[in-house]
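It would be a great kindness if you could assist me with a short task in structural biology. The matter concerns a single protein, recorded as an amino acid sequence and a row of backbone structure tokens. Could you please explain, in whatever detail you think fit, how the structure tokens follow from the sequence? Thank you for your consideration; the sequence and its tokens are set out here:
___
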Amino acid sequence: MIQSDQALTINSKELHFVQIHYFNIPGVILLSPKRIGDIRGVFSETFNAKNYQKAGIKGDFVQDNHSLSHQSYVIRGLHFQTPPFAQDKLGRVIRGSVLDVAVDIRHGSPTFGQHVSVILSDKNWNQLWVPKGFAHAFCTLEPDTEFLYKVTNYYSPECDAGFAFDDPSLDINWPIPPGIEPILSDRDKNLPKLADLPEYFIYGN
């Protein structure tokens, strides 16, 4: 299932062991690795540097992160790192499911402030590539959801930044049922709006 509020997939192509989906917000890429099954179970090639580079995913991964969220409707984000420690991210879910969101924060971009949202789950095995110049967040849809992501730069506390997941200017359709409060960190409860941030990323640079 591909969900997108303001950005639709516009074309797809198939490489060895993976289907690639592109959006009308350039840079964000959805990957659907093929699964080969038999009586033993399933095999999948979840990362291949050569094929992923052909798809537009470039950069050397230097750190892997793993989060476990015990409850549904945990929201982590919207987060990013500023230069010189900006990160590209490649995320996937190994247990449970999330609504995964990437927001274009490149000033001067024709899609500034627009977003892609997709479901990543342990059933579809999809992956989302979130390049530099985009903020990232996800909302868990099931208890005990585990989210893995690879990044192309090391964590830097001084460059760690973010803005409010519910910024009304973004118009993100978060899947929170009426009467339910999302679960946020204390930090995420107090993040500013996108309009209040400096111009960390400039389109075309």
